Amino acid sequence: xxxxxxxxxxxxxxxxxxxxxxxxxxxxxxxxxxxxxxxxxxxxxxxxxxxxxxxxxxxxxxxxxxxxxxxxxxxxxxxxxxxxxxxxxxxxxxxxxxxxxxxxxxxxxxxxxxxxxxxxxxxxxxxxxxxxxxxxxxxxxxxxxxxxxxxxxxxxxxxxxxxxxxxxxxxxxxxxxxxxxxxxxxxxxxxxxxxxxxxxxxxxxxxxxxxxxxxxxxxxxxxxxxxxxxxxxxxxxxxxxxxxxxxxxxxxxxxxxxxxxxxxxxxxxxxxxxxxxxxxxxxxxxxxxxxxxxxxxxxxxxxxxxxxxxxxxxxxxxxxxxxxxxx
Length: 327
Description:
The chain contains ten helices and ten strands. It is an alpha/beta fold. It has one domain (about 1-320): Carbamate kinase, CATH 3.40.1160.10. The N and C termini lie far apart (about 70 Å).
């Protein structure tokens, strides 16, 4: 069992989805779960919908219709005549509109999670249907049937025992080689949708890898792998072919954005290797993150740049800080 993860940039339009199909076709032969984010900047657009809805601004419906139409347009580009998937997409957005019309909760985080999930649900419906049309037998699975969380909406915590049980029961009953599911989302025991924090799809993939004792997890990015610095900021950034779990955790802690900070620990706990590879140049080897010893790797200087930082210096104007009170 392998776990693949594709982010929003890798599925932003019809051509990108076709590229995902090409990569999966190149990696046939082993059962895999493919975790997929919302298309492009869909999550940002849906956040605008949430904010307008919360303010009781009816423009939220116009924004939601635009997002629906974009997915419909991509569907028409992918399928010449597939009304089934088009009906599925419309049904997902109809459900969100019905929620908005009937919702009585004033809890912003709860509302956010019930609306925002349509991005991942719609993208995965499109991709699963597309894969089946090109000869890659795939099964769409709702991540909310797998990942159980608490009720901390927008930053839900995993209930690991139930999640592991759900995941094994559902996944092992599927005969198809390729299983398509969503990143970022889970559900409570009451079946309300929760999210795992922004950019949480990496974490979803790691959760599933942990629960299924996966052989390997691969994150497909728009860069060659993990670089020693942001290539958008530094022209001389170089690829790091191998990184230890410890070094990767330290990089994410200090702000490196190539991997979600919570992703590494579940993989490290079961010694599951993590690859970071390019969906643009899929023939390249990328970066392998595993249980390497410190002396096995000669790291280049690693630079993490944080913008808009403010440095504060505190000092005492007298020597009172050395005074001692003795009773």
